[in-house]
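testing teh design pipeline on a random one, pls ignore if ur not involved
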């Protein structure tokens, strides 16, 4: 980068101040949060991430230095929102992944549903609960997705990753317009908010906790060693003094 294209010291300082402001706003949003999925916290997080990333770039361009900040998901982050400021319609897109870990439990739940729903059995659906794919069809047809999510263990399922996207639009879609390809016409720039749940986030937190615990144990070990060395030195001084006292 040429000297002419480098940011000024004032620009780097302004970016640092922007990070401080974003930190204050993020803390204020967290303190006022209304729940785990508070959109104000999500927005404040994104603003803090953007400010930190901008500061990191300017700092590197100006001084060839980097920060210790690591913003998760910045490479896959959504582009800036360009949708309507006052949307008249919205779409909620949800994906939840499950693993079938107890097929027999899944089949048993489906058989209970099939046994109760005798009126809907005309022969074509009889025995559907005898296969895993048939049991899945029965259960997801009987229960709402949110209920299955809250009771997934009862159905022999194990939760995987999940995501929820809210997109905005000027006008509602026409009936049947997107049914053939419901997930293909998503404009990422019209996503109002997005919430992801993944075990990988828990692993990152656990790794950080393990690192902090290891550092703390190392510090305590160093302190113990320093105390032992101090005690040894004190004892050595006492032993050196004893012959002198005896001579006297």
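output:
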């Amino acid at each position: 980068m040429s000297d002419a294209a480098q940011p000024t010291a004032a620009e780097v300082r302004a970016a640092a101040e922007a990070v401080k402001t974003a930190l204050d706003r993020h803390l204020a949003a967290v303190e006022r949060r209304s729940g785990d999925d508070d959109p104000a916290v999500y927005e404040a997080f994104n603003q803090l991430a953007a400010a930190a990333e901008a500061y990191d770039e300017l700092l590197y361009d100006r001084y060839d230095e980097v920060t210790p900040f690591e913003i998760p998901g910045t490479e896959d982050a959504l582009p800036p929102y360009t949708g309507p400021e006052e949307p008249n319609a919205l779409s909620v897109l949800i994906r939840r992944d499950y693993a079938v870990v107890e097929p027999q439990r899944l089949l048993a739940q489906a058989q209970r549903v099939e046994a109760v729903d005798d009126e809907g059995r005309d022969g074509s659906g009889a025995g559907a609960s005898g296969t895993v794919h048939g049991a899945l069809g029965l259960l997801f047809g009987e229960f709402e997705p949110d209920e299955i999510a809250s009771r997934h263990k009862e159905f022999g399922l194990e939760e995987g990753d999940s995501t929820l996207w809210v997109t905005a639009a000027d006008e509602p879609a026409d009936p049947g317009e997107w049914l053939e390809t419901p997930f293909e016409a998503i404009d990422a720039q019209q996503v109002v908010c997005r919430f992801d749940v993944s075990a990988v986030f828990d692993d990152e937190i656990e790794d950080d906790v393990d690192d902090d615990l290891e550092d703390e144990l190392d510090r305590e070990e160093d302190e113990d060693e320093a105390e032992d060395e101090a005690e040894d030195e004190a004892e050595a001084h006492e032993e050196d003094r004893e012959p002198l006292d005896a001579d006297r």
